[in-house]
Amino acid sequence: MTQFNRILITGAAGRLGSELRKGLAPLAKHIRISDRVEIGDVQPNEEAVVCELGDYDAVMALTKDVDAIVHFGGAPLEVDFETILDSNIRGSYHIYEGARKNGVKRVIYASSVHAIGYHEVEAHIDADSPVRPDSLYGVSKNFVESLSRLYWDKFGIESLCLRIFSSFPEPADRRMLWSWLSFSDCVRYVEQGLTAPRVGHTIGFGISNNRLKVVDDSKAGHIGYRPKDNTEHFRDAMEAKTDIPDPNAPGVRFLGGWFCELGHPDDEGK
Amino acid sequence: MTQFNRILITGAAGRLGSELRKGLAPLAKHIRISDRVEIGDVQPNEEAVVCELGDYDAVMALTKDVDAIVHFGGAPLEVDFETILDSNIRGSYHIYEGARKNGVKRVIYASSVHAIGYHEVEAHIDADSPVRPDSLYGVSKNFVESLSRLYWDKFGIESLCLRIFSSFPEPADRRMLWSWLSFSDCVRYVEQGLTAPRVGHTIGFGISNNRLKVVDDSKAGHIGYRPKDNTEHFRDAMEAKTDIPDPNAPGVRFLGGWFCELGHPDDEGK
Amino acid sequence: MTQFNRILITGAAGRLGSELRKGLAPLAKHIRISDRVEIGDVQPNEEAVVCELGDYDAVMALTKDVDAIVHFGGAPLEVDFETILDSNIRGSYHIYEGARKNGVKRVIYASSVHAIGYHEVEAHIDADSPVRPDSLYGVSKNFVESLSRLYWDKFGIESLCLRIFSSFPEPADRRMLWSWLSFSDCVRYVEQGLTAPRVGHTIGFGISNNRLKVVDDSKAGHIGYRPKDNTEHFRDAMEAKTDIPDPNAPGVRFLGGWFCELGHPDDEGK
Amino acid sequence: MTQFNRILITGAAGRLGSELRKGLAPLAKHIRISDRVEIGDVQPNEEAVVCELGDYDAVMALTKDVDAIVHFGGAPLEVDFETILDSNIRGSYHIYEGARKNGVKRVIYASSVHAIGYHEVEAHIDADSPVRPDSLYGVSKNFVESLSRLYWDKFGIESLCLRIFSSFPEPADRRMLWSWLSFSDCVRYVEQGLTAPRVGHTIGFGISNNRLKVVDDSKAGHIGYRPKDNTEHFRDAMEAKTDIPDPNAPGVRFLGGWFCELGHPDDEGK
Amino acid sequence: MTQFNRILITGAAGRLGSELRKGLAPLAKHIRISDRVEIGDVQPNEEAVVCELGDYDAVMALTKDVDAIVHFGGAPLEVDFETILDSNIRGSYHIYEGARKNGVKRVIYASSVHAIGYHEVEAHIDADSPVRPDSLYGVSKNFVESLSRLYWDKFGIESLCLRIFSSFPEPADRRMLWSWLSFSDCVRYVEQGLTAPRVGHTIGFGISNNRLKVVDDSKAGHIGYRPKDNTEHFRDAMEAKTDIPDPNAPGVRFLGGWFCELGHPDDEGK
Amino acid sequence: MTQFNRILITGAAGRLGSELRKGLAPLAKHIRISDRVEIGDVQPNEEAVVCELGDYDAVMALTKDVDAIVHFGGAPLEVDFETILDSNIRGSYHIYEGARKNGVKRVIYASSVHAIGYHEVEAHIDADSPVRPDSLYGVSKNFVESLSRLYWDKFGIESLCLRIFSSFPEPADRRMLWSWLSFSDCVRYVEQGLTAPRVGHTIGFGISNNRLKVVDDSKAGHIGYRPKDNTEHFRDAMEAKTDIPDPNAPGVRFLGGWFCELGHPDDEGK
């Protein structure tokens, strides 16, 4: 179903961006792909743009003539505040302003488990639970979740804020046995967000169909995400090569994992 | 399992009534079928009765010697108030009075999504959410839900109020991709309601196992309904022949669909 | 503050109607008062109309040129179904149709504790709790609560559904020590409903500031009702002349009091 | 995965204890099995100990050098208070003291549906619902649930309190069509409790994947229990040989089944 | 209002028992007062009984011919388990058995904040929040709360479980500025529990009208407790003589105060 | 009670800052007052500092040697994004970094109703309701609420985020009859935040004791704010000089008032 004429994917050179380029291709005639670095292997259906999200004029141009935005750009983990401020906060503001000024009606935003990383795994939170970021990175995710709420309530732009848990080729530690989001499931959730009849402002939890269920995604049921993957076939190997975890270690206790064990980025290396 | 001696089905000439006649046949030795119009193709196990539900004496007779009532009669969509008053309100009162006077202990009532049609699809309501009817028709469904609650609390008659979403041979528009209830699933839910060990007063959401999940039916888990059908095989054709919906159109935004776009029946044709 | 040009009060010959005529006089230049019986002692600011609410044309005329409706008419307690159907159900429908056709923007409706009479006193329900009527009378209150919800969602007419507990000159039994609503507090709540900046569709619990608190009215906080009366000065006399209640008697156990001990009106006198 | 050096199973001679001995064998090099009676057929990997849980010193010795405790010992149904006091209350206290003094970090405790037996089946309670025991036996389960909460909050010992519904070779009555926990599913839940990365203090509902769903186990989703069995293949036979239940009988109405119909154990035989 | 012929007060020699003897005198012709030690200054309306609550026969005699029981006996703080088992657990069981066998219909039980002591002060729990005891003493309070729930659901004996926070002549530390229950307010709450029309099984929070509000007692609103005292007149002196607290100290962070800082009673003195 | 050696007040030249300088004077020996503009009328107990919050080094110096921070600085209403980014987002980050680096343990932050401005007045939200900002200004408030949550969970710095509704000398429009926070009550709330035994991370609603109650502040009960003022003495004058509001106007319907009617700041003047 080529539902869209043109989709924009930001952060297209990143780990997930590369998957989305392939996975979303059937949905649109054209895919505009952007990143702050050169993107390799550009396909015939793709328009590659090098763009700093902190550059207002560049983002206004980038978001022109697109029907939907898959916003996965910005710093992907904990870094110093000024980088987060420019890439994630100002950059995302530019994306939403681009959407508003250019008439784009829907945005799929890569939020993160780190927006709610300090909730305990046994708290079984859902999309309406209060935020508890575990890092400056997580705070920037809350910022965009709030910003996109405003752009829906005031300007009628829909957003799916997809809180991605652990999206890697395969689980990299024991925690990911429950927190893993396969690349295919990630693409699947974004695709549902793009095609669902009504998104409004929705917060979803991006996680595969793993055995342990630590969050409740039912409030995004109108998006229609149905995960197909799970981590059971990785379990034995992972448990064989890693120690039994201490249930009180912050990285085990809290949703955010090792982000909860990080100090402040200013203190790194001290 | 021929659990019952005689079941009464009202509205038996209607779209769903016809399905119920076949589907529920194994449950009872006799099925009394009634409608305001002549019912065709009466089977040996069936007793056909033409009956206006607004006629008290007729309904008292109709409900005699039955073990359970499947009450699907009444006006099936928005019409003028006096018709609703007579068919749905007075008529359903007669059914419950018949049950009370004749010792019938359980009723399965065809309530409707239109009893809660003004909730937004992203609200993910459950059976305890406040009512928000989208039509006079929906108000009459709330009336019977309230009446049946009284008949349980005061007179010990159990009811399953089954809020039917969109029960048609196949989905007729994009909204039904999430709201469709297959005929088999409809029969399945009614059958569970008739045979569950305890119904008390239960409100259920009649919807198939469609990809998008917009309401939470878990409070009817003691009924044991497990849908078997879904709309995925209709999706491509439906999406090919219909436009992408405007998420802000009332018919997309609210559970009740196009009923929310109807004016008052008195104003029709003006 | 003469905020309104003309208010309509239905049921104006009734116990509460008489209080409202006096209490609301300062709010409007004209008060149209109606009842099915002749109303005595008509004041210069009043326009008295004898009107059956079941008469469509009469109600259309009655609701003309009014700015707000205080709808206290209809059968005030459990009676046979046809009376309830005509007075409370059809009659209230006419009132709302009159409001719609004549451009009246706000209605204060005398709902009742009997709309939720089968909740236990220790359940501490609030305005969003499911309905549990204790009588046909209570079912008719649920009908109007549902109808008024529709008229707000679809036609933009605001309603305060005021669930009146026990509004009498003074408490008439031990239960009223907690359920009593003084006449002044009743007028106060209606007045707030008429003048609050936004009512939308609100359900309020009409009860004075009595010592025992069995329901939670906080969801009507935007109406601004602050009760001034309470039953403490009646307590000693009431306790002296009545027996200690059995906590398991339905009239003590449930919000609805003795209505929960009534049988069906058809069985009365048998 | 031989994750543990030594697990202790109490009540190992009981119906479920026997299943656990086999089912948990792969998890530990050694399994210490204890009961108040001699245990038959001791395997090479097992250390059998006859032990009264009411004997403090014996339990201190019993819990030494173990890595986890599967505490299924104690009186398994309603008996006189002094037996419950000694076996279930004092006995379980000894188990937790043994864990504390011997450094055992995790306990799987056989709680019971009878801890919440007086909730109605249509209440759909979850792990945070208030307790409503249906027997002195059930009260003792609440005691241990409370005690284990203290031992987590204050002493850092994790507990899974597994509320076992009806764990028998096969369903023994109609109620068990919804309440049955197969032996394999029981072992499965305990195994998940032993190996989940973080248990903290968790209450789980031990029930197979039966058609009717009367409780909500989602708050134990971090344990990762996924039932594999259900009762559908027993349904026809059971329904054929037992009467249709009265939905108002306490044994049908309440979660606890026939325990709700028991009198006080002191009155038995009178 | 001499509503009762005879009330029994256990723990009548204790701090609160002495207050209750005076405060409840107007409610009953006779007050039976019991304690494990001799009670001084026996009044003409009082019947003093020395009684170990662990002695079954003595308690059966003690509870004879009484109309209501105010059960404040048992160990009043953290002690070794066997003392708690005998005084608080077995002793309270005897009280409830006495009530059942002797036809006493209502019990006011001195539960404690320590039944929920490990909740954080900012959690704002209410009566339905899960228990989190902070001590063996607190566990025994949960035991009686569970036991009394059974005696209501199964045997129809009403209980008010009054979770007393800090009832002393005056606040003894900074925490008591919010947790203090004046003696008069304590008597007031018990009196309301004895005279309220329906108690069923109610959990109340015994705390005066102090400035800081850390728990929500609204679910006991049907009891009608209205505190009259508060700690503001003690504030300046208390703040002058005590240090500013560390908000992370367990005694500040948790409802239970210094009980959360206690170790296990077996470890005391080590 | 001179509880603190030195408090820092930012935004001290602003409307509320001036009130806080006076009101908080008794709490501290020294008050450091800062603003981006010169502050007039400096008192002997005050240390005035001109400081741009966007200047990292300046804020590090500003926050040195203080015991608590009352952070009321930053842009006080809707302005262009870059101003908000610098003053409110970067500036508040600097304040929290200053607190962290200089060992300040508690911050009182001037959040705003505009953090939740798009909730309807009849929604009766509390502190845990999802955010719904009504402006870029509101989004910046959500940012700081999220940031301060991180600084509590990870770095142990307490924050009271005080969502100020309408704090002016007197109500300026009809909406403020319910939303007004008197200057005295504002100071009172801040004072409570500074002196409460435990703040953790608390969100409070800053509003006086006005007749209409549209939000639920009970989750901040451990702060101990008790408003003393209300708007009733302004009501008549205000109602006389302003029109009756349209309940559907965004400024009446939503908590945020006229902020909900603002367009985007970039579009102003167009």
From TrEMBL, chains A, B, C, D, E, F:
Membrane spanning residue stretches: none
Entry keyword annotation includes Membrane: no
Keywords from the named record: Carbohydrate metabolism, NADP
Tree of life domain: Bacteria
One Pfam assignment: Epimerase
InterPro entries linked: Epimerase_deHydtase, NAD(P)-bd_dom_sf
Name of the protein in question: NAD(P)-dependent oxidoreductase
Lineage, broadest ranks: Bacteria, Pseudomonadati, Pseudomonadota, Alphaproteobacteria, Rhodobacterales
